[in-house]
Amino acid sequence: MIIRAAVQPLTVNDLEYSDHIDRAPYASLLTQFNSEIGNGKHALDVMRDDGFYRHLQVTDMRDNQRRYDIITWPKYLTIAGERGSFTFAAGPADMLPLFDRQMNPGYWAEKLKSGHPSTVEGYDELHFRKWLLQDFWQRSRTMDHDQTTDWWESLGRWLLGDSPLASISDESDVLHALTYIDAPQGHYLHAGDGMWDTNDFHYEYNLAVILTSVRTYLSNPSDTVEA
Predict the structure, then answer these.
(1) pLDDT, tens digit, 9 for 90 and up, residues 48-80
(2) Do 134 and 216 sit in the same domain of this protein?
(3) Are residues 19 and 56 in the same domain?
């Protein structure tokens, strides 16, 4: 017997800790996920439900080849689909209740069984630009006019201006430039802060699949059809 129900949509409240609420180059995670999966056209099929051993399958009812598989066993949960695969390990034997809440990409990155959290995080040019400007305005409040002017000119020359040296598309260039810019002013070295890293979109998308699938599963214990 297969338990089947339409996958529930993602909500704004689910994304409080998301890096992809409303930012390029993708559509917002909320908009894209709900247009693709949380639109009533994807079904959650429970292929196995044996205590802590479960197999949940999210399938596009228009194309059975497009699906996500979520498999649990004591203290582990794996998701595999068209946007990659991830395995998480945590303390409780039953993993599903841990995913029946808001998405918390940073917390779950620490629970990845294979790889380091850095495998789902990366440098983001837009995020860096915003961070750089915020950092400048905050720190310039304690600097005199000449220091502020010199620092801004350095930022323009090395990072934000039209100079051939200016580039923020590559993290290694950014780290080199920040180290060079900081030294003359005696500010702290930005290099290594990681303040401009963001979570990978596909990683967060998979978390959204898990969250909505678990929520659907827990709220539909008796909605069944014969296999």
Answers:
(1) 999 999 999 999 888 777 789 999 999 999 999
(2) no
(3) yes
